[in-house]
Predict the 3D structure of the following.
Amino acid sequence: MSFKFDFDWSESCIEGHDGMFLDGSLENYSGIILINKQASIKADGWMDFIQEGDFFLAYWDQITVWQNDRELFSKDFGISSFSFALVPEELRWHLKGVRKH
């Protein structure tokens, strides 16, 4: 089964965390919407990133997932256990306070 989704950045807002990576600049955003080809909202929330040296990881800082216009799942602010596990051990020290399960 294959799904096609698009990001809708039209209502997004820069929230202040920024950095440089590869050949461009990065910023965290709120108001990001993930939609399907019928323009039905499938998820919305805030995205953030971790950048330390050569390590980079973008993740949903806060997200609500929708199915048939009903809330299916919601994660409050903080890095998920899945994303946290992707961060090298030596870079985790400053994430302890923002970790969510």
Q: What stands out?
A: The two ends are 28 Å apart (CA to CA). Strands lie at 5-8, 13-21, 24-36, 41-52, 55-67, 70-75. The first strand starts at residue 5 and ends at 8.
